[in-house]
Structures are given as C-alpha cells and as structure tokens.
Amino acid sequence: MNVDLHCHSDRSDGLLAPAALVARACLHGVDVLALTDHDTVTGLEEARAAAASTALRLVDGVEISVTWRGRTLHVLGLGIDPGNAALRAGLDTVQAGRLERARGMAESLADAGIPDALDGALGHAKNPAMLSRTHFARHLVATGKVSDMRAAFRAYLVPGKPGYVAHRWSTLEAATGWICGAGGQAVLAHPGRYALSAGALEGLLAEFRAVGGSGLEVVSGSHSEGEAASWTAVALHGGWRASRGSDFHAPGEGAELGGVAALDARLDPVWRAFSPAPGH
Ligand code: AMP
Ligand code: MN
Ligand code: MN
Ligand code: MN
After folding, report:
1. CB within 10 Å: which end of the chain, N or C, has fewer?
2. pLDDT at 275 > cutoff 90
3. Is the pLDDT of residue 100 over 80?
4. Residue pLDDT, tens place only, 197-216
5. Closest-lying ligand to the alpha carbon of 135?
6. Which residues fall inside 5 Å of ion ligand 3, going by CB?
7. Which protein residue has the closest C-alpha to ligand 1 atom 11?
8. In a mutational test of the pocket of ligand 1, which residue from 10, 148, 153 has the highest number of ligand atoms less than 8 Å from its CB?
9. Of all protein residues, whose CA lies closest to atom 17 belonging to ligand 1?
C-alpha cells in the first residue's frame, strides 16, 4: 500500500490545485493521501470532492509552522476535523503575519539588488495571505537569479542571506493542542531538516510528547536514506509512531507523490491509528 501523508496544493506553496493533486496522486499509485497545506485547511473540501470518484482515500491534514527555541519547526496534523473551530481560529493567527513578513523579505532582496520581488512572488501565489519563501524562490528561478529551487534556498531566503526575515509562528504547545483538539495525530515533519544538537533533540522530543505529539515523519522527501535510517532508530527507541510523506510541492520540484521509500517494517505506522485503518 502506498501511503503519502504530506503534500501541498496551491492553497499554500504547492503548484497544483487540490483536485489536480488528487488526480496526480492516483496516477502515481498512491492509495492513501493526506493533503497537508501550510497553516490552512481550505484545500481539503476540493480534494475530498475529487477523491470521491476515485479509489484514493483522502486524509484531512495540515502542516503548522512553529517557532521553538528560536527555530522554525513544522508539525503535521493528520486525521484532523477541518471544521474544528479552535483549529481554524489558530491557523488564522499563524497566517496573519505572512504578508507583512513578505514585505520585509522583498525589502531585503531589494537591498541586495533584486527589486520588485514582492510583485514577482505574488505572481506565483494564488492567495497573497499565504505568501511563502517558496513563492519568492520560484520568482528568483523564473527571473534567472538562480538556477533552481535548491540554489534559491542556498543563496537567498535562509538565515544570514538576503530575503530572510525572522518570524514568530505558533508555539509547539499551541499547534499540537489544536491538532489533538481536532481529533488528529501530531507528527513532527521532516525532523532531519532542523540540524538539532543531541541536547536540543532530546528537549524537543520530551516537550513534543508532553504536549501530545505522537509521531515522527521518518521517511520524507527531504530526508536522505541515511537520515531515514537514523530517524527509524529514534522512533523505535522512543516509542514514536512513524509517518511517510513525499512533501510534494510541484512536478519536478523535489520528490514525486508517493515517490519515497517504504517505512521499515518494525515501525508502528501512524495510519494504523486511522479509523478504519487503511488496508482493513
Ligand atoms: P515559509 O513557510 O514561507 O518559511 O516557507 C517554507 C517553505 O520553503 C517550505 O515549506 C519549503 O516548501 C520551502 N523550503 C524551505 N527550505 C527549502 C530548501 N532548502 N529547498 C527547497 N524548498 C525549501
Ligand atoms: Mn512548503
Ligand atoms: Mn515543512
Ligand atoms: Mn511540507
């Protein structure tokens, strides 16, 4: 069974509309798909309608931006009720600062000799309120400032480089609380991306568990094979459920839908807790 519990539509920083995303997932053999847009659940209704006429099982999801000890983390909510009022109100607060931050990013890029980046980024975004670094990166690629998305996130948009603006997202406790309160499982997204020291990792996992976190995204489009192996060990050792997700954003940009390795058979997959569990 091909389970992909992490991807983005054009309601956040993906390129495809939710219905097109579902169609593409079917084409790539995905059996169970969670749509997990950044800080919004607005694509789920369209995705669900599209999935209704297919064999694909859609899981309602979201990926919430969190600031923890000064760094940005992402927490996936899987199997949430997208109508939950506290979750929706929480997501509204997380989204609120994006446009203001984008103005700051554009100013910083202008100082580095790249004018008009705000309009450029907006040209790649469906919803200005969801403007993200990805839209700026697509603009930098489209205008030939960099050769590809990876290069955009090396030379720009990251701490210490033009276009980066520090931002306060939600707290780990709030994001996890909204997810659990909406009946979902809270899963730490792509843990290999955070470059945590052993001490910071220990602190993060203890705090995440204390506030209700239950899983780690062990297999991710942004993990190497080695990282997947080491997060497998962390999950087994710590008794975490394990998730698998491509983190698909666009064709040709990173991993394909359903196109990542299988979970190690010793792991307890998060989807075993879905009701009814897929495959049963
Ligand atoms: P934001 O939420 O606006 O800070 O944007 C974060 C998004 O930028 C992530 O969800 C990724 O889609 C994208 N991103 C961050 N780092 C990289 C990277 N190194 N390569 C490609 N995309 C990245
Ligand atoms: Mn993204
Ligand atoms: Mn992420
Ligand atoms: Mn993601």
Report:
1. C
2. no
3. yes
4. 999 999 999 999 999 999 99
5. 1
6. 74, 189
7. 134
8. 153
9. 153
